[in-house]
Amino acid sequence: METATFFYFLAASILLTLAPGPDNLYLLTKSLASGARSGIILAAGLASGIFFHTLLVVVGVAAFIQSSPVALGALKIFGALYLLFLAYGAFKTGRAGKKISMKKADSTLSFVAIYRRGVLMNVLNPKVLLFFLAFLPQFVDFSSGFASLQISLLGLTFAIQAFVIFSAIAIGAGKVRKLILRKKNLGRILNFVEAAVLAIIAVTILIF
How far apart are CA 112 and CA 21, in angstroms? Predict the structure, then answer.
């Protein structure tokens, strides 16, 4: 792979990550609700899911899923159900009227649970898998004989830059959170927003 090609890929990856999307929106909402540290952990989970999708592209499983309506449909259903389950949990928390506390900002979910949520949200989203199946090979020099290694490198690069950008979003949202923390019923509102965002993502997975 030529150096210029790699930097073209990096530039495209950054622009795609910065573009408004469900991951950015949910990360922003979660960071506002639970704090910057929770947002960064979630960002790590989302970025880790990229390694899984990259592996599927390398071994050919991604192409199989794309060509199999049954496999693709099953992945869509599992992904949507998982997100709806998370949405119900956020809605239930909002109904309970729990207040946000700076001292207990990250106690609602353990960091392990938040990280796992990020990984599963990414892994169970077939749109992400199909995106990498179409995107990564465009920057690979298949004549070199090291296509798998190149795809792996590109996947790693995408994951790293995504984690950096997502973490920046989480930190920014955390600073905003400190300014609006004392607003009445903020915790309930953010939980309802989180539930709505998750439900919307679930619907988009099923429809598109």
Answer: 24
